[in-house]
Structures are given as structure tokens and as C-alpha cells.
Amino acid sequence: MNNVVWGYAVDPQFERKEAVRLVRLALSLDDGDPDTLAWAGIISAYMVGDSESSVELADRAVALNPNSFRAWTCRGQVHRVAGLPEEAVRSFERAMRMSPVDPQSHLPFVGMGNAFIELRRFDEAVVAAKKAQRHNPSYSAAYRCLASAFAHLGRDAEAREAAARVLELDPAFTISAFIARGGQSNAKLQIEGLRKAGLPE
Fold first, then answer.
1. Of 100, 117, 133, which residue is a domain's last?
2. Over 90: is that where the pLDDT of 19 sits?
3. Which of 100, 128, 160 is the last residue of a domain?
């Protein structure tokens, strides 16, 4: 899944199918493990596009381990992909309460930023993305979030600067490839912002 989502897959269709096959195998071996359920939710959201199943899996993960940073982060992503940004923000906030200095904290911060964009809370998106950037300066998703949020705010110079950083970290980035990777059907405002920021189609 990560190979597909990050654009590393040599054969995206094969890797997409393989991710789904492996998650089904994992669930057949143990469908009561919160980490497995959390990952299954993410894979279902990004690789299959099944919002109902992905939300159910993510909800089960946090029910089984309500203290899991990973489960709450995955739940946030699943709800964001499903077009439920308010619930996504609540999940990401919960993840950060579970583990305030987690080494993976850039993930919920960017997820929160992207959810804020869809909620038209662009200033808050900038704050969240800057936190992600501070935690992991080479995480290109933080700069995508910044580029989109700044563009929506009319802060064009900062939007272009963030877009340039996206292309520095991911030189082959295009908006169409980003959409094709999956999970972006409810990210209309984010994509609109990336276009306004001047990222290549």
C-alpha cells in the first residue's frame, strides 16, 4: 500500500491487489488485533475505496485498544478519506493525546491539516502542517498541505514556496498521479489548492 500511495510502485495494479490479498490473509489469521484492524482499515480506504468497511475496521481497532496512537491515527485517515473530516480531526487529536511526542506525530498532524482544508479552516491547516514539518522536515505531504492551504488563503508566495519544496522532495509529483494513487475522492479542496499553488497537472 505504501508503495502505491507514495508513488514507488513499479506495477501499481499488482501492488494494490497484493496489499488487499495480504490484508485479507492477516484478518483471516487474527481479526481481533487492533494494529491489524487499523492497517486493514487504511488499506480498505486507499486500495479498495470501501468507506463503509474501512470505517468499521478502524472503529473496531480503537474499541479494542483505545490507547493506541496508531489505531487513532489510522482511524483519522480512514474518516478523512471517507469524507468525514470533522470525525477525522477528532481522531487525530485523540492520537496526539495518546502519544504527544510520538516519532510518527507528523502523520496525524498532516492528516489533521488535510481535514482542516476540506473544512475550509485553512489557517488551522497551516498550523497543523507546520507542526508536521517541524517533526519531519522531509515529509513531502506536509508541504502539499501547506501549498494547498496557503493557496486557498491567497498567500501565493508561500504557496509557491511550499510547492517548490514538494517537487524538491518528490520530483516526479503530479496532481493526476497523486489522485490515481487512491484515497483522494473527498479531497477536492486540497486538490484545488494544489492546482492554485502551481503544482504540475
1. 100
2. yes
3. 100
